[in-house]
């Protein structure tokens, strides 16, 4: 395998709910859900049944045809959101790539090439994928360095800085892309005032506002999508990760007026919208978009924050706790600056899977339906891991 990862010395072989077992039979409490992917836990019986049933019917057809699961998913997503139009891809990166292409296409169709209305504005420390376009739009240079000439007309400004946004967004801007909560950048929520500022500025300058909800979408923040809590409606929204609960799928949601600019032949995907992925995703959205699950996200969020505050009152390992719903970041205190990977390693040794979001932030993104008993066991293992780490 290409050496682009640095895998942990553990090979998972089986998982159920929020527990994972390695090849030696050791169990781990999973507080990552595969980087906010398995939102209903591993091997959810309803999803296993849906996938198995679809696998016996239709796996794939070319995009010369449509298929019933894709149509059902498009209908479910548009009925539940501001959107009237859906495009399906295979990942968050592909969804963002499509959204950015669509934004430029809309600007050129509406204003012509002579208007030079092609600038895309993004934010420092943002992350939008690993294609050459999306890694250039992302605000972390370490991911784009070393790949030669990059796509141009992209600007990066400070996140949550209203003055910087007002200065940057102008009549040459075709789109602003923002994460409602920066995930890879440190689990930093956007303020409501900041998002409203972006909405107003985009409207004023005829630019499109894109919400990258690859990590925040499908219930992660306690609503189906984070924009629903912000009081701000984007023009384009992207989703992936939890949408397929581990089966690869991405989606671009937008209005009919914007979506029509992706006319026949302007974009496409061989596997995007295939029956297996869309059948699973349709069931995922059906199961998650309920008061029971979404209220449970908020309740579990409060429980985790209280537990982390309790751990911190004794250990002093955290400087700040932040996030939304079950996307939670714990920034390390000065004494442990740059040690997030070390704590991840210690946690794994004590039987709990956690993430980081840069060298100074631990990230928690458990399944939305994780049982409290399992959650408490995972947090207890984490506390023992922190004690062990501090004593080394």
Automatic annotation (TrEMBL):
Keywords: Amino-acid biosynthesis, Aminotransferase, Arginine biosynthesis, Cytoplasm, Pyridoxal phosphate, Transferase. Pyridoxal 5'-phosphate binds at residues 92-93, 127, 212-215, 270. The modification N6-(pyridoxal phosphate)lysine is found at residue 241. It is found in: Cytoplasm. Gene3D superfamilies: Aspartate Aminotransferase, domain 1, Type I PLP-dependent aspartate aminotransferase-like (Major domain). It catalyses: N(2)-acetyl-L-ornithine + 2-oxoglutarate = N-acetyl-L-glutamate 5-semialdehyde + L-glutamate. Its EC number is 2.6.1.11. Its cofactor is pyridoxal 5'-phosphate. It is an enzyme of class 2 (transferase). Homodimer. This is Acetylornithine aminotransferase. It comes from Paraburkholderia terrae.
């Amino acid at each position: 395998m290409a050496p682009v990862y640095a895998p942990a010395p553990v090979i998972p072989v089986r998982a159920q709910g929020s527990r994972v077992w390695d090849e030696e039979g050791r169990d781990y409490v999973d507080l990552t859900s595969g980087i906010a992917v398995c939102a209903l836990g591993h091997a959810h019986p309803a999803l296993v049944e849906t996938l198995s049933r679809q696998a016996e019917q239709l796996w794939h057809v070319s995009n010369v045809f449509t298929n019933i699961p894709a149509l059902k998913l498009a209908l479910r997503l548009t009925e539940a959101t501001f959107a009237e139009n859906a495009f399906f891809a295979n990942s968050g990166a592909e969804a963002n790539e499509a959204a950015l292409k669509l934004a430029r296409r809309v600007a050129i169709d509406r204003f012509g090439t002579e208007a030079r209305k092609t600038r895309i504005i993004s934010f420092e420390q943002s992350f939008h994928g690993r294609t050459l376009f999306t890694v250039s739009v992302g605000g972390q240079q370490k991911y784009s360095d070393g790949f030669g000439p990059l796509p141009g007309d992209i600007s990066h400004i400070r996140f949550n800085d209203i003055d910087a946004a007002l200065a940057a967004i102008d009549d040459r801007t075709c789109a602003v892309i923002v994460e409602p909560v920066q995930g890879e950048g440190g689990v930093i929520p956007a303020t409501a005032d900041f998002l409203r500022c972006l909405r107003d500025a985009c409207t004023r300058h005829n630019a499109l506002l894109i919400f990258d909800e690859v990590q925040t979408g499908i219930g992660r923040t306690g609503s189906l999508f984070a924009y629903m809590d912000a009081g701000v409606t984007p023009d384009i929204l992207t989703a992936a990760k939890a949408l397929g609960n581990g089966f690869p799928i991405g989606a671009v949601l937008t209005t009919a007026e914007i979506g029509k600019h992706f006319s026949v032949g302007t974009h496409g995907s061989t596997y995007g919208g295939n029956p297996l992925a869309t059948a699973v995703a349709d069931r995922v959205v059906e199961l998650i978009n309920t008061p029971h699950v979404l209220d449970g996200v908020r309740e579990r969020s409060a429980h985790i924050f209280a537990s982390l505050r309790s751990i911190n009152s004794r250990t002093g390992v955290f400087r700040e706790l932040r996030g939304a719903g079950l996307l939670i970041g714990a920034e390390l205190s000065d004494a442990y600056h740059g040690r997030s990977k070390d704590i991840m390693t210690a946690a794994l040794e004590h039987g709990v899977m956690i993430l980081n979001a840069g060298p100074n932030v631990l990230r928690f993104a458990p399944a939305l339906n994780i049982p409290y008993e399992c959650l408490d066991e995972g947090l207890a293992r984490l506390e023992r891991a922190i004690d062990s780490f501090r004593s080394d």
